[in-house]
Design goal:
single chain, two-stranded antiparallel ribbon
């Protein structure tokens, strides 16, 4: 499996700032070749409810932070996306 797949194909879900194992997975198929290239986690009902709760809590905290703090976070996100742009581009094409 190449770098692209090692980085993005996981059988876990990301909830509340951590990767969590799932009981089930969903195959990821390369639409061009039909080859199975990995598996991603399939969130359970409990996972979804936990993700919603985590998102609500994170939003409540984040919206009360100073503007400069939020701007710094968004700049860091933009920087990391830029660093990964080649990998992201290969993923979606």
């Amino acid at each position: 499996m190449d770098e692209l797949h090692k980085e993005f194909i996981r059988q876990k879900v990301f909830i509340g700032g951590e990767w969590r194992d799932t009981e089930e997975g969903i195959d990821v198929i390369n639409p061009y070749t039909g080859e199975k290239i990995g598996m991603v986690g399939r969130a359970s009902r409990e996972d979804v409810l936990s993700a919603i709760q985590s998102a609500k809590e994170a939003f409540d905290d984040f919206r009360h932070r100073p503007l400069m703090f939020r701007a710094k976070i968004l700049r860091e996100v933009a920087k990391r996306l830029e660093q990964k742009r080649e990998v992201i581009a290969r993923t979606i094409t």
